[in-house]
Amino acid sequence: MKVLALSGSLRAASINSALLRAAARLAPPKIEVGVFRGLGALPLFNPDLEADLPPPVAAFHAEVAGCDALLVASPEYAHGVTGTIKNALDWLVSFEPFIEKPVAVLNASPRAHHADDALRETLKTMSAVIVEEASVSISLLGAHLDEEGMVAHPAVARAIRAALAALHDAVMLRHSGPGPSFPLP
Amino acid sequence: MKVLALSGSLRAASINSALLRAAARLAPPKIEVGVFRGLGALPLFNPDLEADLPPPVAAFHAEVAGCDALLVASPEYAHGVTGTIKNALDWLVSFEPFIEKPVAVLNASPRAHHADDALRETLKTMSAVIVEEASVSISLLGAHLDEEGMVAHPAVARAIRAALAALHDAVMLRHSGPGPSFPLP
Questions:
Q1: Residues with Cβ < 8 Å from A178, sequence gap 6 or more?
Q2: How many CB atoms lie within 10 A of CB A182?
Q3: Cβ of A93 and B83 within 8 Å?
Q4: Strand pairing partners for B72?
Q5: Which of A90, A144, B27, B146 is the most exposed place for a label (fewest CB within 10 A)?
Q6: Do A102 and A135 meet the contact criterion of CB atoms below 8 Å apart?
Q7: Which value does ipTM take for this structure?
Q8: In angstroms, how far apart are the furthest CA atoms of chain B?
Q9: Per-residue pLDDT for B77 more than 90?
């Protein structure tokens, strides 16, 4: 299973980015988590460009089309989503492979709810499938953990592993299709 | 009075951008409305860049510092703010001249409320002063009016002029300072 991880922060020391890198390291062999590094290179969304996509957007689309699920972690800026994560989603609004894509929304600062609420509203409007069991809250703000610290922290590592397992189950369920049919003789 | 107008859409045929250009044409001589053209050139917000601002951000900051008020018009994308307008605001979060700046939020599609609500929440969190009397709703979605059409449409032109007059009053009130003091003899 391939998971594409998107961080809504471009800050080098971002705890959301660190959380996603920790998830990539903690993932079991059956789950490949790739942290997308190109969100900062996306141009600001412009519908006029959709007919002839800029190369960074085309690369982003290819990654989204090629993954089984998305893992999103994004901070809250001024009681709102970050421009970076919303811009990335704006480029996916009319992108057909995104529809019904399973998405887990991690929340590293559970006391903040505006951005989390807004992100979920947008994802639902875009017909993504939010996997609630995989959308865990982990109180990392103020915990002073970097990627290494998260991997080494038993409770944090457990929460990340649980989120990935739940995301895996949701993807498997989605791929399993309908059960066998038993026509009457 | 100088008003800086920000459109949350980069689309050439954007009704929000047309609305702001119409406002610039309808403004009386005492109000100068300048539509900012550089939002699409702003890099995605990165706190690591704040110590040495990229030139497009420095130019944006200078425009914001030099205006008396802001006029914002932005569409709703997938039940959320546009990445473009939120990214612009992200660059203003810790910019001191933005604090207590009078802002009018125009809404060209009153049936949509998610983006309008989120924009107001963010502006309040950033300590802007939302001028309610100037934050008018004008049902332009589906009205098929371009900039010329808006300028020529009596009801639309009246709404725009009323918004500008209210914004002017709010700025004058802000600049007037306290009334005279009457010390007892």
A1: none
A2: 6
A3: no
A4: B6, B105
A5: A144
A6: no
A7: 0.93
A8: 65
A9: yes
**Three-state SS sequence of chain A:** CEEEEEECCCCCCCHHHHHHHHHHHHCCCCCEEEECCCHHHCCCCCHHHCCCCCHHHHHHHHHHHHCCEEEEECCCECCECCHHHHHHHHCCCCCHHHCCCEEEEEECCCCCCHHHHHHHHHHHHCCCEECHHHCCECCCCCCCCCHHHHHHCHHHHHHHHHHHHHHHHHHHHHHHCCCCCCCCC
pLDDT tens digits for range A75-134: 999 999 999 999 999 999 989 999 999 999 999 988 889 999 999 999 999 999 999 999
Report whether B14 contacts B73 (CB < 8 A): no
**CA-wise closest residue to A119 among A163, A73, A159, A60:** A73
Q: In angstroms, what separates the C-alpha of A30 from chain B's closest C-alpha?
A: 33
Q: Counting every residue, how long is chain A?
A: 185
Q: Which two tokens stand for residue A64?
A: 């989204």
Q: Which chain B residues contact residue A47 at CB under 8 A? A: 11
Decide if B107 contacts B135 (C-beta within 8 A). yes
C-beta of residue B167 within 8 angstroms of C-beta of residue B71:
yes
Instruction: Encode B63-85 in three state secondary structure.
Output: HHHHCCEEEEECCCECCECCHHH
A84 and B80 within 8 Å at the Cβ level: the answer is no
Spell out the residues 6+ positions from residue B182 whose beta carbon is closer than 8 angstroms to its own. none
Beta strand A129-130 with A102-106: parallel, antiparallel or unpaired?
parallel
A151 phi/psi in degrees, rounded to 5: -60, -35
By residue count, chain B amounts to 185
Per-residue model confidence as pLDDT tens digits over A28-49: 999 999 999 999 999 999 999 9
Exposure b/e, A50-62, CB count within 10 A at least 16 = b: eeeeeeebeebbe
Mutate which: A42, A72, A74, A79, vs B, most B CBs within 10 A: A79
Whether A113 has its CB under 8 Å from any CB of chain B: the answer is: no
